[in-house]
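Model: Ready when you are.
Researcher: Fold this.
Model:
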Amino acid sequence: INDEVSVSLGLRYISATKEYKGFGRFDVVGRSSGNIIPPEQSMELDAEETADGFGAIIGVDYAPMDNLNLAMRYESQTDLKWKAKVTAQDLGGKELFVDGQKSESNLPALLGLGVHYDFNPKSYITASLNYYFIKQADSGDDITDTDDPDYRLTEDYDDDYDNGWEIGIGYGYRVMPDLELSGGYLHTDTGANSNTYDDFEPVLDANTIGLGLKYSPDENIDFTVAFATTYYDEGKRDYDLGGVVEYNKHVYSFGFGMQYRFHRFFD
C-alpha cells in the first residue's frame, strides 16, 4: 500500500492422509491358574483416511521504523471431509473403521501476530503468538446425514477441546557477513484434556527448543540447517475397565533448506 504497510492474500490447498498400521501377537493368561490359554491371539489394523480442502490466508505487514516490523495473519478454517480405506482390520470383533465411511474434522482458523526488531545490523529478536479457533471448527451436531448413509459427523471430535494457542521467541546473531546463528523457544497449548486423548492421536501440550544456522555465500542464495527438540507434557486418561493410560513422547527434528532469489532476472 505504501512504504510502511503491505497486505497479502493467498489461497491454500491441503491434501492430507492419516495412516493407521499395527500388528501384534499375545497370549491370554488365566486369572486363577496363571497358565496360558491357547491358541495364541493376534490383532491387525491397516487403514487410512484421506481428505482435501481449500482455505484462505490474509496478511498485513507494518514497518513503522527501519528496524521494527509488525505482522498479522489470518488463516481461514479449512473444511476436511475424510474418507476411510480399510485394508485389514482384525481387532477381536471391534470395528474402528468402516471402509468407505466419511467423516468430518476440520482444520481450525488461526490468528497470528508477530514482531521482528533489529538491535543492530548483527542481531535481532523475534516474537510470535498464534491463536487457534478450535471450538469454531467443531464438526457440528454428531448426527448421521440422512441424505448420505455413508457420511457421519465425527462424534466428539473437538466437543471437549478448548481453543489452543502458542507463543514463541527467538534471537539471531550474524557471526560473520555470510553466517548467521539463531535459537528460539515455543510453548504450545493444544486445548486438549483427558477427555480428548486417545491411542491414535494423543494431542499433548509441548515445549520446543530450536537452533538454526544460515549460510549465505552471496546475496541471492541461502542455505539453512535447523535442529529442534520437543518435550511433550504427560497426559492421562482413565478408560474405566481399560485402566489408566499414560501418554508421553519426546521428539527430535532436523531440517535442511535452500532459498534462491530470482530478482536479478526480473529487475
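Researcher: Now this one.
Model:
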Amino acid sequence: MYPIKHKNIGKKQMEKTNVLVSLVFLLAVVLSMSLVFADDTETADNNISIITANESEFHTLTPSISIIAIGNCSSYYVNLTSNSTVVVNDTTIQNNTLTTITFTTLTARNTYLYNLTLWNESCASQINDSVTYILEINGRPSITSVTTDDSCTIRSQDRLFSTVWSDLNASNNGKNDSVKQYVCKTNEFSGGTCTGGSWCTESTYQTDATSSCTATIDGSSTTGSKDYYVFLRDNNNSDISGAVSGVFTICGGSEWDEEDTGSSGTFSTSEESSSDSPRLGISWALVILIAVIIVVVIALIYASKKRTR
C-alpha cells in the first residue's frame, strides 16, 4: 500500500505544477500583447529635455545651433525665434537625434535672445516645452593705426610696434573685448600663430584699445628692407579680417658701413682696411727713397769738401 500512496501524491503535485506554468505563460502573453498594441500617449512624459550646443557666442553672421529633444515621442515639432523674429516654424526633428538649425539676418556685435519651443500633440497633448538662451554675434577687432620708428634698426637692437584698435561688443556692455597684437614676418596667421615667422607677439591681452610689442633684431639678420604684418585676436578667438602691413629697415650691427646706411662718417670695416694697405705701402717706399736721397746728398757734400782740402 505504501508505494501506491506515494505514487498518487507525486501525480497530484505534477498536475498543480503544470497548471501554474500555464498560468504564468498566459500572463506573459497578455503583457506582451499589451506592450505591442499600447498607444504611446499612455507612456509619454509630460516634459522634454532640450539640449543645445554653442548657445552663447559665435563669430559668424549665420551661426548654427545643435538641438537634441529627449522624450517618449518619436518626433517633435520645433519653433525657433530670435528677438521675436521667426527663424524656423513647425520644423520636425527626431527624438534623441542631433539636429542643426542655422540662423540668418543677424548682425555683428549684437546680442540676441532665442527661444526654442517643442511639441507633439498627436503623441501627447501635454508635451509642450520651451527654453530661452542668449546668443551673441562677436565682432572682429579692427585696427585704427600702426606706428613704428622710421629710422633703420641696427642689428641686435630693439624695434617697437604700437597699434591703436577697436573691438566693441554689446555683450561686454559696449566695452572692448580683450585683444592681443601679433607682428608677423609674412601675411600668414592662423590659430594665434604667425605661421611664416614672427617679429614679436604681445605677452598679454589688452582692453584699453592700444597694444604694443618689441622685436629684437637678431644679430645675424640680413640688412635691408623688411616687411611686417600686424594681426589682432580677441579673447573670443576672433581674428582681424586682414592684416595691416608695412616696411622697416635693418642697417647692420655695431660695425655698420656706408653700404649699409648710405651715409658718410662710418666705421671702418675689414674691407676698407684691406683697401688702405696699398696706400700704406707707397708711403713707406717714399720715406725710404727720401732717406736714400738724403744719404746720397750728404755723401756728395762730404766728398766735395774732402777734395777742396
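Researcher: Key takeaway?
Model: The chain has three helices and 17 strands.
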